[in-house]
Specification:
Layout: E1 8-11, H1 15-19, E2 32-35, E3 42-44, E4 51-60, E5 66-72, H2 74-80, E6 82-84, E7 89-91, E8 98-105, E9 112-114, E10 119-127
Antiparallel strand pairs: 1-4, 2-10, 3-9, 4-8, 5-7, 5-10, 6-8
Length: 156
Amino acid sequence: MSGLPEVGLRLLDPRLTSWGFPRWGTAASAGLDLYACLDAPLILPPRAQPALIPAGFSVLIRDPDWCGLIFPRSGRGHREGLVLGNGTGVIDADYEGPLMISAWNRGDAEPVQIAPGERIAQLVFTRITRPVLTVLEGAPGPGSERGAGGFGSSGR
């Protein structure tokens, strides 16, 4: 057994296959390219509300030891400010509805245009773990050297 789940894809937009979906950009790419399934170009003004863009398919992971994570594509985020409105999208194994991409223009000056069929995000599949959680009572013990210092407390 390879340990890899079989993931189903239900195509909801027939244009996806002509755009090249599904594919990874290279043989070593971690993320599966996600396309903007729009009927017309979308303009995202600077710092405006995020827009939900259909990815044109549903993903059927179904294995509770796996999930999908949606990340922005790095180039447009760096050059133009196109990022995900929710930071990172999480696709649980039991979600089988349409994938939507929350797109946001974090820039201050220029609008960002997204064209129909443009690659705007990427889907990465990863294993997950659910540790046993223990609720502790009483005062904190000696703990670690760092303790409960919070952000920046490691001095690095």
